[in-house]
Amino acid sequence: MVFIIVNFLKTFQSLEKSKLINLLILFFCALFFWTSITCLLPTLPAYIQDIGATAKQVGYVMGCFAIGLLLSRVWLGKLADEGLSQLIRGVNINSAIINFSVRFFRRFIGKLVDYPSRKVVIIIGTLVATFAPIGYFLLNSLPELMVIRAFHGVSIAAFTTGYSALVVDLSPQKQRGELIGYMSLAVPIGMAFGPAVGGFLQEYTNYGILFSVSASCGVLAFILATQIREFDFSQNHKRDSIRLKRDKQKDRTFKQIISNASFLVPSLILLLIGSLFGTLVTFLPLYLRYIGLDFNVGYFYTVAAIASFVVRFISGQASDRYGRGIFISISIVCYIFSMSLLTFAHNSNILLLSALLEGTGAGMLVPIILALISDRCSATERGKVFAICVSGFDVGVALGGPVLGSLLLDLGYRFLFAVTAIFAIIALIVFMGFSNKDIPNSWRFALGYVEDLYAVK
After folding, report:
1. 448 phi and psi, to 5 degrees?
2. Considering the chain, what is the average pLDDT of its residues?
């Protein structure tokens, strides 16, 4: 443990001061953002049911989160890569209106309008995270809740796209996996703290206070997001801009990215695991109510978050050294065992072991797949690629909530979670068979024996 802490400090001390400050601001911004999101994980399904919704209707509302994600993710990725002025000019509207819009935004945010802006996208995410919890409390009919839940989904689409791209921008290539792992620690810390706070507030106060706390965390995240210093208008930046413009000419279109095998497999893996996660988040609280187990569901998320926290200290750096494939394979195996245990859970010990494995899988899979994707694209197309690939996870969340619930809930909660274990098995088969340029190399890459042949040199 001492070695891990020493290495952690050594890595951050090696960074330039400006990059270190940016990363610290980003980390605490993400911490408040994820606390805002996750304090509603164990409580929102119960809140929706308490105001009169059926179990299936809970699934519909929770699944609407993915609608907001899907409708906004690609647009936000393009904003992160191209900047607001290019995005506005890409809209087929009268040129006078476009020029007025660009001048309007330039007046208020200066030259930031002319450059790719991860910061603007992050700010959008924190603003949505601020206002959505208020909407849950003020609007309580089923259609209204579905609209607010879809709106809330924009927060994840914006924040994760901007945050992931900016972290990679600030990370030296040889330390990319390590720094992504460290910076993604905000997720398990937020998931350890948020659900525990949410469960406590639900039990000992009321929903009004719960939603107020969630909104307050969004406000703190927004304040920190405004302090990010994204651009350096120095001579070095000008030279970098020339290189980036040259690289941008080689960038792939959305159609080319979607059809590219190097991104298709990670997207499919995220789709299957997203379905698993969507089912878990939507139906775990209701599952525990159904089996009559006296267990605070917030503890499940807390244990998962602790496991995710610990494993990120090791897996990111190790993936830089030993390759991404072996750790993605291990993470999927953890998901298989976690969902299998959850299917047959009958006491708190099995639930906690399932949470431990789920957190371990999440702690390796998400940051290392992000590192894998960033290895396979240029800096100037990173926002688009992240947006498209992570949309696989968004679609999975949508399937896991309303779709799987509608199709399988009548067969029982245990059967529903058994299907998620099968999804994880399929994800492992796909990754081991198709993650590299051919089946033999895919098999060896998944076991850590060969390098990634799709990586941009």
Report:
1. 85, 20
2. 80
